[in-house]
Specification:
Elements: H1 3-17, E1 35-40, E2 45-50, H2 60-72, E3 79-84, H3 97-102
Parallel strand pairs: 2-3
Antiparallel strand pairs: 1-2
Amino acid sequence: MNADKILAIQKDIVRVLRNIYDPEIPVSVYELGLIYEVQVSEEGKVDIAMTLTAPTCPIADDIVRNVQEQVAQVPEVTEATVNLTFDPPWDKDMMSEEAKLQLGLL
């Protein structure tokens, strides 16, 4: 798989991530800044590094599972793995301008 194809897959993944919402906050996980990194290998394996707004999030497993399942459905993705991290810890400055506006923080 060439670099252009990998970039196209990454864009498709971002599109998917923009449609996955934290059930407690009406903003996508992508716009919240919860997605730290999306890596796509030449074989179509995807590794996503993400965080949550709080380490004690009661629905953490649901959010992570949803991200993994949705990304795995992207054409050309052969496997999706989500690695949850709290380093660096999430803060509201990681949110997009769109998310801040939607939540009334601007």
